[in-house]
């Protein structure tokens, strides 16, 4: 839920895609610190981040959702 006026875009702190990108980056850094090979996932994160920076939030959201789906399939 956003806290600003309805006709304004959400602030960076409230943007769902931006928050998911940050969460994915943190998760990947934890996995890497634990010795996991996350190079492929980092490339996927970079692609999602690039789309987001270019203003394509829809594509960034799709890519980060696919990344989280892939992370869910990793062995625990």
What keywords describe this structure?
76 residues; mainly alpha; 3 helices
Poorly predicted regions = none
Work out the number of β strands. Answer: 0
Question: How far apart, in Å, are the first and last alpha carbons?
Answer: 32 Å
**Percent of residues in β-strands:** under 5%
SS-based class: mainly alpha
Q: Biggest β-sheet, characterized?
A: none
Radius of gyration: 14 Å
Overall structural domain count: 1
Shape, per Cα inertia axes: elongated
DSSP helix count?
Answer: 3
What string gives the helices and strands in order?
Answer: HHH
Integer average pLDDT: 88
Fraction of residues in helix: 55-70%
Quick overview:
With 76 residues, the protein is an all-alpha fold.
Structure overview:
The protein has one domain (16-73). It has helices spanning 16-33, 39-53, 57-73. It contains three helices and no strands. The chain starts with 15 loop residues before the first helix and ends with a helix. The longest helix has 18 residues, at 16-33. α2 packs antiparallel against α3. It is 66% helix and 0% strand.
